[in-house]
Amino acid sequence: MDSYFDISPLISPRLAVFPGDQPFAIKNLMSFSAGQHLELSSILTTPHIGAHADATIHYHPDGEGISARPLKHYLGPCQVMHIQGLAPKARIGPEHLLQPIKAPRLLFRTDSFLSPEIWTEDFNSLSAELIEHLAEQGVCTVGIDTPSVDPADSKDLPSHKALWKTGVAVLEGLVLEQVPEGLYTLVALPLNIEGLDASPVRAILLPKGALS
User: Fold this and answer.
1) For residue 1, what pLDDT is reported?
2) Could you give the count of Cα atoms lying within 13 Å of 78 in the half-sphere of its Cβ?
């Protein structure tokens, strides 16, 4: 049995993205099947594909690209908390926290977006009040198993604005359906791309204290 959980969906052209966003596509530049001496390809995609980290420039005009985000947000002690059974499109609030916060990185398993390849707008998200509450408790990073911390039809994006206000980092599009509640070590490093508004991550959860 693996000693870690892989919490990133498979990236493929089948992976759902926000309507109107750029889906994942591969362009083959060279291939063995064409009689060439190697395989060579390029990709076209939104950086908000699958499991990803948002940069602050994504949600605030004074923000920075993903390469400026401190890596400490995406590496270290982490807690997975189950918040399940909410109404479709409901936001998670402080009142839904039924156990103490025990780590500076907190991932929410909602089971409200179970198929990464099937788009739905019924997923749960986070409230601005929750993000502000978590920041007060010392949380530096929040994550969720849905495409966004705001509902799909939100235009004012209060939870993203709360991320900017508090400095809390965010991971979206995680796959947590097999992950029990508890404490882990998170590894979910974004790519070092200058000026980009997000980056895909290969997110894994190691046993608690694995990197200490």
Assistant:
1) 40
2) 30
User: 135: which DSSP letter?
Assistant: H
Domains, the chain: 5-9+48-207 (3.50.30.50)
Residue 57's φ and ψ, nearest 5 degrees, are: -65, -20
Q: Tens digits of per-residue pLDDT, 172-207?
A: 999 999 999 999 999 999 999 999 999 999 999 999
The predicted model scores a pTM of 0.96
21-38 pLDDT, tens digit each: 999 999 999 999 999 999
Q: CA of 137: how far to CAs of 72, 73, 109, in Å?
A: 17, 15, 19
Q: Which residues are tagged catalytic?
A: 58
Q: Two tokens at 211?
A: 């990197």
Residue 33, phi then psi, degrees to nearest 5: -65, -20
